[in-house]
Design goal:
The structure is a homodimer.
Chain A lengths: L25 H15 L7 E2 L2 H7 L4 H13 L3 E4 L3 E4 L10 H7 L6 H25 L2 H16 L5 H17 L3 H24 L7 H13 L2 H23 L2
Antiparallel strand pairs in A: 1-3, 2-3
Chain A binds a DNA duplex through helix 3.
Chain lengths: 251, 251
DNA sequence: TCTCCCTATTTACTCCGACATATTACGGGC
DNA sequence: GCCCGTAATATGTCGGAGTAAATAGGGAGA
């Protein structure tokens, strides 16, 4: 994707390079910038983002764009603004940490090890339970989807993007089989964040071992309808992933 | 933690016919209106919210207000808009169902029984695990907070608002003791939604039984550091709540 | 003189409407 | 059937009027 050049060449005096990083829209880019700055701790809870006009001028954007960015952050619980008191950063426990965007912002730059630990812990709670439910409720179609994903995983290894996509498909199929919407969206969010971490795991070193047999174990248990076995096998899987990520992060 | 409640109510004494029902700001009210309409199924995924200007005119608000409302909905994954193609409602699996606002919108009007079930199921997975972790990691202060909440619960019964607040405090203290941020925010979201349901449980009928002994069991197990017992006791608690809500919803 | 309350000012967000721009879907021309 | 021009529509920008709220100042009572 090419980041197209600046739109307004009428005014060349802005030496500041264009803010639009990963966001496609202008306010999206601003929200991304401010969001990462808040998540990284540059702005602490209770801090004040002084001045709509001042900030808009500093970023060389119009007040409207800045305002819409603030709306996005407000919607995610990161900030709140009141007529006279300016825009304050909310305390951490009001943040919407499971929001995919917030999760993404939390993982740009330095990933807070403590938070990563809590995420994996949550995953270790949820995913085995999901596997247990899936074993009880899966139908033939679910199994077929899982099997296909498994085949894809075997064909492309986990070092390729296609292989990781197949891994995601496998887990998604399990979630689908739980017939639980809340579980699905939660695991999807966590999974996306975890995938973010696996990216620099893969960047730092090749995958140490082949996780395929463990995946097959999960599938077999689900196919057999054995909830406890499925939960146990999935537990092994997430512990494995945790080990890998932990060793990758300790460098 | 003294949850200072920011003024959520606006005096509607002015007889202006504007849309702001439960809303704080104008765009907040619009987001609320559109959000509930999407959640209730009035707008199906794939539907198009035709025309920025047309919509703004129909609602008797300016384009800015409508635009900012759309930003909020976009931030929560409910809609996405592209030039020329209008603003489309996203498929359900892109929705941010754990967002507190979205959760609230889902419970205005008719609560989808299937979704409520999935929420309680998730709660039945997460809360016992949280109790287990709390039993392993709690310190003296955590126990003191739980004990105080328990005392408050005994003083005011669960039929009063103060009593329900004490119940929330008790659960929050447990979450706090897990030392897991992700777990905390997740359970907080779910708890808020569940509390919404308990409101019409309480509205439809008085609470059938006194849940205090079960709460004490959870506390004792956590105080003793027995993770398994804590998980089991908490499991009893959520099953009880599920039964109550189920019977209340079947009327 | 000190304290408290009430009022006024200032400040910053909120909302508005119009203008300019860019991107995309649609349809006509080859 | 493919390509390209046009029209439609969302996006970004701007400045101003309106409004709510925090702070400062003044007046009254002790």
């Amino acid at each position: 994707m090419k980041t197209d050049s600046i739109s307004t060449e009428t005014d060349d005096k802005k030496a500041t390079k264009d803010v639009r990083g990963p966001g496609r829209r202008l306010h999206g880019a601003i929200a991304h910038k401010l969001g990462t700055e808040i998540l990284s701790g540059k702005y602490q809870p209770g801090d004040i983002l002084s001045g709509e006009v001042a900030f808009a001028e500093e970023l060389k954007v119009s007040r409207s764009a800045y305002r819409e960015a603030i709306q996005v952050l407000t919607a995610k619980g990161l900030v709140a603004s009141r007529p006279k008191a300016g825009t304050r950063v909310m305390p951490r426990d009001r943040w919407n940490l499971l929001d995919p965007d917030v999760l993404g912002w939390a993982f740009t730059g330095d990933p807070d090890v403590e938070f990563v630990r809590s995420l994996f812990e949550l995953r270790a709670i949820v995913e085995p339970a999901a596997a247990r439910l899936a074993a009880q409720r899966r139908d033939r179609d679910d199994l077929k989807t899982m099997k296909a994903a498994l085949a894809d995983m075997r064909r492309h290894t986990l070092t390729t993007e296609a292989g990781r996509a197949a891994d995601r498909d496998f887990h998604n199929a399990i979630l689908q089989a739980t017939r639980n919407d809340a579980l699905m969206v939660l695991s999807a969010s966590i999974g996306a964040a975890v995938n973010w971490t696996t990216q620099f795991k893969q960047r730092s070193r090749a995958l140490p071992r082949n996780p395929m047999p463990d995946h097959v174990l999960v599938y077999d248990a689900i196919a057999a309808g054995d909830g406890e076995a499925a939960a146990a096998a999935m537990n092994v899987l997430v512990e494995l992933a945790l080990d890998d990520t932990r060793s990758a992060m300790e460098e």
